User: Fold this.
Amino acid sequence: MLHKKATYKNYVGLDACMANLMRPGMYGSYHHITVPGKEGGAKKVYDVTGSLCENNDKFAIDREISDPAIGDLVVIHDTGAHGHAMGFNYNGKLRSAEVLWKGGNDWKLIRRAETLADHFATLDFPGLKT
Assistant:
């Protein structure tokens, strides 16, 4: 988690965004959200938002979750096989790494984070270095 904001509502800002998982923003799909290690702790109601500053870049609205701190890992569950396939590079936003949780403390990186070299790999501009 990168940001917290308390105004008329409480917001949690993630480094992920609708370019990574557009289903909640497009048609309000529900995805369980947890903060590992804080499952039994205090809960608070938040809008869980992405990093694109768009009005539909939200993973959850008025959702009660464990109260995260800046730097905590926030897990969006059950994104399914189509999360990445539906992703896109909005405003040049690079796609995130993907991690598969196998239960307990067993995690596996299944897709590395995209780089600028990946983003520009199909372009052939003389003198362009990435």
Notes: The domain at 3-93 is CATH 2.40.37.10 (Lyase, Ornithine Decarboxylase; Chain A, domain 1). The chain is about 10% helix and 30% strand. The chain has a mean pLDDT of 87.
